[in-house]
Design brief:
heterodimer; A: 251 residues; mainly alpha; 3-stranded antiparallel sheet; B: 14 residues; 1 helix
Chain lengths: 251, 14
């Protein structure tokens, strides 16, 4: 991978685009058609009440499990990005520690129904009220707002795939050992995105997508801040029942 | 440290 000439040939760009799109499709937790079909399957009042009646630590644990599942699909996605497995293990871990949650948030917009502000969770659609017992309403509102703004861009699955790869392959992450190599991967992915947006006649999206990156970073800091708040109150829950992968990534 | 991540990264993709 590192010996690719720059600028990459059109053939290389197209092969890279195809590969990223395939990786995204093969590692999506839910297919778009599946989500579309379930779009109006909403939680009943009783079911919402049951979620709201959970204790703070029960609901945190429940969400940590769901989030960890989503992250595992992102890890698979990362592994299939051309060049990712050629990076040193330390750099692969660094990119996932800082980027997997961001990709989960981008992917979440596929599971979002803007018509009624609900998200697909546990097999049905629910609004922010479902997550009330987490005790972090501001984070949930911010996450839902972000999903709204992502949906407003109306990305195709191909554009979404490329954007997710750009979010993950970020040479600005601290502690990278071979920043040059990550930078070269990123540069080729940027060429791919420009090529795709040009082909789709949607070049104006590029700037809007780059603006999303800072929002993603602030959402992730808010998540870590909330986790810190929670773990000070319920250290045993985090220690003994949270998924080990969640702890490795976020604590 | 990062035991699970190491394992996930080492598993070959199916």
């Amino acid at each position: 991978y590192p010996y690719c000439p720059y600028p990459p040939s059109l053939l290389h760009i197209e092969e890279l685009c195809d590969s990223i799109v395939r990786s995204h499709r093969d590692t999506s937790q839910f297919r778009l058609e599946e989500l579309q079909a379930l779009r109006w399957k909403l939680f009943s009042r009783e079911e919402i009440h049951a979620y709201q009646s959970k204790s703070v630590d029960e609901m945190w644990q429940h969400c940590a499990v769901r989030l960890t599942e989503a992250v595992q699909y992102v890890v698979e996605f990362a592994k299939r990005i051309p060049g990712f497995r050629g990076l040193g293990q330390n750099d692969q871990i660094t990119l996932l520690k800082t980027g997997s949650m961001e990709v989960v948030l981008v992917r979440m917009s596929r599971c979002f129904n803007t018509e009624n502000s609900t998200v697909f969770f546990d097999g049905k659609f629910g609004s922010t009220e479902l997550f009330k017992s987490l005790g972090c309403g501001d984070l949930m509102v911010a996450v839902f707002d972000f999903a709204h703004s992502m949906c407003a861009l109306r990305l195709t699955e191909q554009q979404m795939a490329l954007f997710c790869s750009l979010v993950l392959i970020n040479p600005d992450r601290p502690c990278l050992e071979d920043r040059g190599r990550v930078h070269r991967m990123r540069r080729d992915l940027e060429v791919c995105l420009s090529h795709m947006l040009h082909r789709d006649n949607q070049e104006s999206l590029q700037h809007k997508l780059y603006q999303k990156v800072s929002v993603l970073q602030s959402l992730c800091s808010l998540h870590v801040e909330k986790l810190h708040w929670f773990s000070q109150r319920y250290p045993l829950t985090v220690h003994s029942v949270f998924p080990p992968l969640y702890k490795e990534l976020f604590t | 440290k990062h035991k699970i991540l190491h394992r996930l990264l080492q598993n070959s993709t199916s």
